[in-house]
Inverse folding.
């Protein structure tokens, strides 16, 4: 009887360990909770012995994120800042384009990439696409040297938060387009850090789960960055019926007041966006 209970307990522990490992490999903070995640949550609430397993899974994931965002100081000293930044982007399964070139460097489906980019040590990076990668504020140390960066795409990055956005001031004199859509950790307060991006002309803030009133945030950003076109939200999104009517009337008056000035300059914000592309 004792050996039978011991065997059943061992099989149960192995099963829970397998589920925890699968959860770590498949789930991300930006994704919806899976059946396994909800099951493990139920176990942790009813069986305290499962909590160490969940803590181990979280610790392991944080360790992987830290390792992927290490500072590539050796690569900078040996190959230069541009090559080190390019290697960091590709190691995260991101993509980039050098200034003055049309070709994009990106890894294949298995994460492998060509080292042809090392033939351009003097070329600076102009566009970066890090959508869905685990980049965090520490990893930005590898990119702050790219002072000619014009476009940065961070769509669906689970580690992008207020600390990350506050460090984007390093690109205040060059960054023109920024995509932070589908980033679950970005809050209203975090968006205030974008005030330093004086050259920003296009900002995508669609599907930010932590924003309670996207419409008001849209207005706030337009007041903070008057030369920037904000996409992904509407003025009335997240407001009550009364607030929606008041906001629409305010937006209409603002548009009428700014139209003569825009006509004098010969372009509106939408036209400026068209010229960029």
């Amino acid at each position: 009887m004792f050996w039978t209970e011991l065997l059943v307990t061992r099989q149960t522990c192995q099963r829970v360990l397998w589920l925890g490992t699968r959860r770590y490999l498949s789930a991300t903070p930006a994704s919806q909770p899976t059946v396994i995640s909800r099951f493990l949550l139920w176990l942790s609430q009813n069986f305290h012995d499962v909590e160490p397993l969940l803590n181990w899974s979280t610790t392991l994931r944080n360790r992987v994120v830290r390792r992927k965002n290490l500072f590539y100081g050796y690569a900078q000293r040996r190959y230069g800042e541009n090559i080190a930044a390019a290697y960091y982007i590709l190691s995260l399964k991101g993509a980039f384009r050098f200034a003055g070139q049309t070709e994009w460097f990106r890894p294949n489906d298995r994460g492998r990439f060509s080292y042809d980019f090392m033939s351009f040590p003097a070329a600076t990076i102009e566009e970066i696409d890090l959508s869905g990668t685990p980049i965090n504020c520490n990893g930005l140390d590898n990119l702050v040297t790219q002072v000619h960066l014009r476009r940065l795409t961070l769509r669906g990055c689970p580690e992008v938060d207020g600390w990350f956005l506050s460090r984007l001031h390093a690109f205040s004199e060059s960054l023109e387009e920024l995509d932070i859509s589908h980033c679950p950790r970005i809050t209203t307060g975090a968006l205030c850090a974008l005030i330093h991006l004086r050259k920003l002309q296009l900002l995508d803030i669609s599907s930010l789960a932590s924003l309670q009133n996207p419409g008001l945030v849209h207005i706030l950003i337009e007041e903070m960055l008057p030369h920037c076109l904000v996409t992904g939200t509407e003025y009335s999104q997240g407001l009550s019926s009364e607030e929606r009517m008041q906001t629409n009337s305010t937006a209409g008056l603002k548009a009428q007041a700014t139209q003569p000035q825009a006509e004098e300059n010969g372009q509106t914000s939408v036209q400026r966006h068209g010229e960029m592309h």
